[in-house]
Amino acid sequence: MSTRVENVDAARARALQPVLVRQPGATAVRAVALVLHGGREVSVAPVTALQLAVLRMVPIARHLASVGSAAGLGVWRLRFRYRGWNSDAHPVADVRWAVQQLREQHGDVPIVLVGHSMGGRAALWAADEPGVVGLVGLAPWVTPGEPYKQVVGRRLLVVHGTRDRTTSATNSKALVDAVRADSAVDATFVHLRRGGHAMLRRAGVWNDLTADFVMRGGLGVLPGARLAQAIEAGDSLV
User: Fold this and answer.
1) What is the distance between the alpha carbons of residues 29 and 73, in angstroms, rounded to a whole number?
2) Above 90 in pLDDT, residue 4?
């Protein structure tokens, strides 16, 4: 994926709104996971609930809720206004809006961003929002020289499949390395054997790493063995 953008008609951009969808689960919320779907390199088409990129994150959200609801993890999915990374209707603005909405609803609880592909890139860019304590990038779209200072000080996990042909594992690892060199908290890169961009192969591992990280970052739960070893190693092949 490159960095091309497409302009959006200003009136149309104001008319469309991002959508927050709550995953059934926790009632007394002590931490929040905000799940962000992928998109396209360039597109001004509006996002709909039945697009594959949106549906792909439903199992992730459900797994988070099943693991974390009893402990007080509230899980929300954000539906962006537009499918693409556009200059006039930026997905990062949607993430910032969503974080503000969640803070108004749940107060100063810890928030962990979980983003796939374009959603992973949006999570990285919005990591400096108040309340965000960590983020998970699942096969994130990372460009060479991507800004990373906003991530420093937050826990970071990036998981990238070895068979991903859509986004660059090399760029992802370089960003994690940069954050790790500049941060007092852990920044972890996991290269997942046989994993592709859609996260369908070895879906259980994608789910478990994500849930373990969110529970640790949001609620202080000790991670399972696989994530604990990855954090200790910094870079690992799983």
Assistant:
1) 6
2) no
Out of 3.40.50.1820, 1.20.1540.10, 3.40.30.10, 3.30.1300.10, which CATH number does the structure's domain 10-237 have? Answer: 3.40.50.1820
**How far is residue 171's CA from residue 75's CA, in Å, rounded to a whole number?**
28
> Which sign does the torsion angle of CA 20, 26, 32, 33 carry?
negative
Chain mean pLDDT for the chain: 92
| Distance from C-alpha of 25 to C-alpha of 6, rounded to nearest angstrom | 38
Q: So what's the pLDDT on residue 12?
A: 54
Q: From residue 82, give the alpha-carbon distance in Å to each of 38, 102, 142, 206.
A: 11, 21, 19, 26
CB-based contacts of 174, cutoff 8 Å, min separation 6: 142, 144
CB 33 within 8 A of CB 98: no
pLDDT tens-digit readout, 56-115: 999 999 999 999 999 999 999 999 999 998 777 789 999 999 999 999 999 999 999 999
Q: For the whole prediction, is pTM greater than 0.90?
A: yes
C-alpha separations of 223 from 2, 57, 191, 196 in Å: 35, 22, 18, 24
